[in-house]
Amino acid sequence: MDTELGRSRNTLAAYRRDLSGYCEWLGANDTDLLGVTSGQTVEFVTWRQNNGAAPASAARQLAAIRMLHRFLVDEDIRADDPTADLDGVRVPAGLPKPLSEAEVASLLAAVTGNEPSALRDRALLEFLYATGARISEAVGLSLADLDPSSGLVRLFGKGSKERIVPFGRAAAGAVSEWLGPGGRPLMEPVRWTRRGDKEALFLNHRGARLSRQSAWAVVRDYGEACGLDKQLSPHVLRHSCATHLLDHGADLRIVQEMLGHASISTTQIYTKVSQERLWDVYRSAHPRAMRRAGS
Fold first, then answer.
1. In a structure prediction context, what are the per-residue pLDDT tens digits for the chain, which is 295 residues long?
2. Label partner for 25 (CA 20 to 30 A): which of 16, 41, 76, 100?
3. Which domain range does residue 9 map to?
């Protein structure tokens, strides 16, 4: 089923956790996958929501449970699907809160020094903002995925879908410094311990591929250093990249392709963000924006 659906490793791991939680609940309620009823699946979803599950998490878990029960029916393990008539969980359409361009500049300026870790951190932050890459895509990069001469990088998104994304001079310069003699080579171990680490673009202090959690910590730590700790995450940098592109006239379809969105409706969220930012600036800056006529 993993192969047929083409899900990413992170999504599959989340689905496994979701299904493990579901099966534990079934056991605690004296039933199992073959005996659970429609009423009990409703009970489970209600229980999850009453116990503080975020709407997006509950919706994802329900999707995993539905796939599991459809699989059991398809394989003739169970005759009916107890989730067939179950309503989905409504997920509020939250708007991303991008950084301003001044805040991005402040974040990038927070990386000081020329030691290998500083060169890596600067390259990582510049790269995330320049490309709008997901954090998992950035840490999954290999040296061969990067073409500094053309300013292009090959990213592998959800479902291992490949896309080619440009990155500008600032990111190219930071990555070049990281790959130079004073950066990545000084973090390389005498002997590579794990397969694939030798080709990783970003390394940790032990000479292994930088993990998703460690890269997240890099973003968080520099956010704290410049006072952005409450709002900063790798995904905020992705939001900021998309919003700033649209602010400066980028075509929506190009932004969709760059971010790797399957549907343009996902990318359209940023047009609303961009318009709201425009209104905020207008209201605060134009002398007659908030005056009544004739006043």
1. 444 445 567 777 888 898 999 999 999 999 999 999 988 988 888 898 888 777 778 888 888 899 999 999 999 999 999 988 777 655 455 555 788 899 999 999 999 999 999 999 999 999 999 999 999 999 999 999 999 888 899 998 877 788 999 998 999 999 999 999 999 999 999 999 888 899 999 999 999 999 999 999 999 999 999 888 666 889 889 989 988 988 888 888 888 888 888 777 777 777 766 666 666 656 666 665 555 444 4
2. 76
3. 2-74
For residue 80, tell me if it sits in a domain.
Answer: no
40: domain CATH number is: 1.10.150
- CA atoms of 14 and 233, how far apart (whole Å): 19
| Whole-structure pTM value | 0.65
Q: Is residue 96 part of a domain?
A: no
With respect to residue 273, please indicate whether it lies within any of the assigned structural domains. yes
**Residues identified as active-site:** 134, 158, 235, 238, 261, 270
The tokens describing 52, both together, are 């503080």
Give me the number of domains the chain comprises: 2
What's the N-to-C CA distance of the chain in angstroms?
A: 67
Q: List Cβ neighbours of 149 (8 Å cut-off, separation of 6 or more).
A: none
| 66 and 141 inside one domain | no
